[in-house]
Amino acid sequence: MHKFHSLTIKSIQTQPNAVIWTLDIPNHLVAEYVYIAGQHLTFKAQVNGEELRRSYSICSSQNRNNELDVLIKAVDDGRFSQFAQNVKAGSQIEVLHPSGHFMLVPQEKAHYVAFAAGSGITPVMGMIYATLEQTQTAEFVLFYGNSKTSDVLLHEQIANLKDRFGPRFSVHFFLTQQKVDMPLYQGRFDHKKVNLINKYMLQGIDSDGYFVCGPGAMIDQVCTALKAVGIDEKLIHNERFLSDGQEISPSAKTINEDAGVTVTIDGANHEFNLMAGTQATLLESAESAGVDLPYSCKAGVCATCRCKLVEGEVEMINNYSLEEWETKAGYILSCQSVARSSKIHISFDE
């Protein structure tokens, strides 16, 4: 079910320029909030009279009962993130079920590698917990970049995991605005840095998956560098973080011909018509027609609005979240898709 539930923020912890919300999951909703490590939650709140939706990754252990943690970093122009810094413990917040395709189901004897920068640590943290707690033999290597040591998020949690699991968990901190003793650990994750890391720290490690999360430019550099040293593209997974969605130009989402649209969600079909010249994505068109669909970032990043194109043709303007196998199977992002045929059928139930 694509339904928001009102959950209680049972406690709040402070982090460098961020907060951790611990959500209380009542027994009757536990099944709806089962998740795979790396997935996120979509939140909905009224902020200054406007409904805002944002997605934040679950960063806690799956071994904890009836509670989930999300970390929300304050962003200067982020309306929801600024609101989140001032919420009090005991408050209620509307939360959609877990979603997202940047995830890891760890296997025994596997080796995993992650590159994270800033708040990009949050989905990766869930993967680390899963790898170390749900297997006896799998190993995890984390390369984590920040500006200064005082900016490191989840530092205590990372240290505790290192103490508990020793050689199965390797963590390496990189800083951009604070001098360090070893030159390798100075600077951003760019093509040159990844080459050095691969040469001196990853040789002999046959990784079963590489996970990259952080700003878009960092992700592009790391993924390109990994492919350049011969890593199979299918083993490289990434998730981008945006504080506010980028806009699609009106001309790019102009519908060229009249179209009849059918939307299937939660077992029901909803139908509406679009007129040629309308400037709207499928998500925006559905909203105008009174059809409530799941979404969050509206930037092609979070995949909350993922659905399957059952019939017709669409143009997907941006895609930063769906993998190649998904697009080949007909999955699209409704927030980025524009009708390009006279009949469209999309389903959120597949």
- The average pLDDT is 94
Order of helices and strands: EEEEEHEEHEHEHEHEEEHEEHEEE
- CATH architecture call of the largest domain: 3-Layer(aba) Sandwich
Given this structure, which CATH class of the largest domain is correct?
Alpha Beta
N-end to C-end Cα span: 12 Å
What is the β-strand count?
18
Helix content: 10-25%
Radius of gyration: 21 Å
Indicate the low-confidence ranges by residue numbers. Answer: none
Please tally the helical runs, counting DSSP H or I stretches of 4 or more residues: 7
Percent strand equals 25-35%
**Secondary-structure-derived class:** alpha/beta
Q: Numbering strands along the chain, what is their spatial order in the largest sheet? A: 4-3-6-1-2-5
Counted up, domains total 3
Describe the biggest sheet? 6 strands, antiparallel
According to CATH, the fold-level topology of the largest domain is Rossmann fold
Summarize the structure.
The protein is α/β, with parallel strands linked by helices and 350 residues long. It has helices at residues 79-85, 121-134, 155-165, 191-201, 216-228, 282-288, 324-328, and strands at residues 5-15, 18-24, 40-47, 50-57, 67-73, 92-95, 111-117, 139-146, 169-175, 209-214, 236-240, 259-265, 268-274, 306-311, 314-316, 331-333, 337-339, 343-347.
Question: How would you portray this structure in words?
Answer:
- With 350 residues, this protein is of the alpha/beta class.
- It has 3 domains: 5-95, Translation factors (Elongation Factor Tu (Ef-tu), domain 3), CATH 2.40.30.10; 111-240, Rossmann fold; 259-347, Roll (Ubiquitin-like (UB roll)), CATH 3.10.20.30.
- The protein contains 7 helices and 18 strands.
- The chain has helices spanning 79-85, 121-134, 155-165, 191-201, 216-228, 282-288, 324-328; strands at 5-15, 18-24, 40-47, 50-57, 67-73, 92-95, 111-117, 139-146, 169-175, 209-214, 236-240, 259-265, 268-274, 306-311, 314-316, 331-333, 337-339, 343-347.
- The strands form 4 sheets. The chain has a 6-stranded antiparallel beta sheet. It has a 5-stranded parallel beta sheet with strand order 9-8-7-10-11, sandwiched between helices. It has a 5-stranded mixed beta sheet with strand order 13-12-18-14-16.
- Strand 12 (259-265) and strand 13 form a beta hairpin.
- Helix 4 packs across helix 5.
- It is globular and about 65 Å long.
- It starts with a strand and ends with a strand.
- The model has no long low-confidence stretch (mean pLDDT 94).
- Residues 1-105 form the FAD-binding FR-type domain.
- InterPro entries: 2Fe-2S_ferredoxin-like_sf, 2Fe-2S_ferredoxin-type, 2Fe2S_fd_BS, Beta-grasp_dom_sf, Cbr1-like_FAD-bd_dom, FAD-bd_FR_type, Flavoprot_Pyr_Nucl_cyt_Rdtase, FNR_nucleotide-bd.
